[in-house]
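Hey, can you fold this one?
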Amino acid sequence: MATLTDVCAPLEHAEGTRSQVLRWLKRIGEPVAVDEPLLELETDKVTVEVAAPVAGVLREIAKHEQEPVAARELLGRIERAVDDEAAGAARPAQAAARAAATPAPAARARGLSPAVRRLLAEHRLDPAELAGSGVGGRITANDIVRHLARRPETTVPAATPATDVGTRRVPHTAMRRRIAERMVESLLHTAPHVTTVFEADLAGVLAHRAKHRAEFERRGAPLTLTAYFIAACVAAMRAVPEANARWTDDALELHEQLDVGVAIALGERGLIVPVVRDVAALDLFGIAERLADLTARARADRLTPADVRGGTFTISNHGVSGSLVATPIVINQPQSAILGVGKLEKRVVVVERDGEESIAIRPRCYVSLTLDHRVMDGERANRFLATLVAELDVWGRRAG
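Sure. Predicted structure:
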């Protein structure tokens, strides 16, 4: 005798967040163990594994790849045998047989997620064949998909045969489609975008960083330039609180807490924006520590949906890839503004000291604020950036 157990989408995908099935890791008729990953959901650009609630056999798939999913919605069903203990005892033998059929070096396989191990076994891949993009070179599911797409015999839908000479089709990933939808909605259908640009002198920041960088690393947090920009946003928000707000039809909602999203590039996979919470309550080390944790987990595909929800302001450090100015940087709705940080470079400038002007070489970068023009005018945006630039300059006195 057997019973069917529902597998449902987790409650954490509520609060209006859209989810969809990214891939199933098991096929109908395959045995599953308790807590073994069954499928992956993509929500807010984060990939989340859904595990089997019971041991048994997967009998039904209710939601297929790319189909939207709501919280608590049925995803599939598992046939659970009455003798769960006997069914569970069979799992190690089955797993051992699969492992014997697909040998993999222990050193490379160690530390891989269940989803990655499942894909390696399914496609009979040796981990040594793949270059991992995760922390410490760890292999991710996307690394496997990209590897398979480069093999001509693969049937993975990462690339399809050419339709014309010199042309090949690369179907959009779920993440890329989601980014495209949000960019079009924000720029063309929601907010009138305006950008203002200032230039910041980072001599003080670099002096402070040189003095404290080793200490921060000893305490476990790399001291990046982004941490200074996050800290400077606190003073700028106090001067112009509407930059930390949300436009509604009948009122401007000012957020009491500053939660800063930081855009992190994931190469071909796209962009993700985890959130540093309650920045005003943190010192520079606290900001650096949280930023390092979020960055590491983003690149290892270990962020949770909660990590990318609820940001009230965003920073895009596009200068890390060489850009001087990017305009407009599309606002992350329903926020009111986004800060852009350009490439740091040495520039020749005129400086005034004791009433005398001279030529000097200074480390400088452009900073831009793209704003929702419904929320604030240019004068308020300029005040925000003027305060931010002045706050960055203060770090030179703190370095002494």
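The longest helix spans residues 378-398. Let me know if you want another pass with a different chain boundary.
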